[in-house]
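User: Second chain of the day. Same drill as before.
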Amino acid sequence: MLLRNVEKGFARIDWAAWIDAWCVHPVSAHMPLVPTQCLGPCDAGNVVLLRCGGSAFWLGNVERKHMHALFSFARRVLDVGASAHPGGDIAALLFMPISIAQSSS
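Assistant: Same format as last time:
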């Protein structure tokens, strides 16, 4: 799981809180939490990329209030892969980066 994009003026994520919560969550044994810089051109801030096998889910404008729902979604991604469906607030955060959208058209 990758999380970052404050360079464009979006709200800063409290990394200590995310890392502490992630380390005690069961999914952390199977999916690392990796801080990174901007992952490429997009209009979203605080981007999360969940990758598992051949599945990739991009979520933007993530805030602390999404933390536990995001962790639960990560568990579903591990369990079922590409057929995982985000629920509630998480579904509204899904997006496709500009570079991927352009290459698939």
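DSSP finds four helices and four strands in the chain.

User: Great, on to the next one.
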